[in-house]
Write a structure and sequence with these properties.
It is built from no helices and 13 strands. By secondary structure, the chain is mainly beta. The chain has one domain (about 25-120): Immunoglobulin-like (Sandwich).
Length: about 120
């Protein structure tokens, strides 16, 4: 559904009532870039999911050998590009998110998403 608001078009998977009420999960992968620069300059220093209507989040980051190097159960915790306090090398890393969404009928639905992120310096 496309909704036009003050000359801005926003694409949402929502039902429109007097307020917006989403009936599906919304993990915003567009706000999760496919690269980040964890160099403590205050810009793009952390990597992690953002979303609404999400419960029971498990966010993982793996290196190219499949070793888990980061895990979080909160959208507030972002990966800082370190493993055990050590800066990781410039490389491509795999992320995976397991989560549940509240459905219209009151139940929970399990979902997952997978992608990659490149660490740049």
């Amino acid at each position: 559904m496309k909704i036009q608001m003050k000359n801005t078009i926003v694409a949402l998977v929502c039902l429109m009532t007097f307020t917006f009420s989403c009936t599906d999960d919304f993990i915003d992968l567009q706000k999760n870039p496919n690269a980040f620069t964890p160099d403590n300059d205050g810009i793009n220093d952390g990597f992690g999911p953002q979303g609404i209507n999400i419960t029971n989040l498990d966010f993982y980051v793996f290196n190219r050998w499949g070793e888990q190097i980061f895990h979080s159960i909160s959208m507030d915790d972002k990966w800082d590009g370190k493993v055990n306090g050590n800066i990781v090398p410039v490389d491509v890393y795999i992320w995976k998110i397991f989560y549940r969404t509240e459905e219209d009928y009151g139940g929970l639905k399990s979902r997952q998403k997978v992608g990659t992120v490149t660490v740049l310096r």
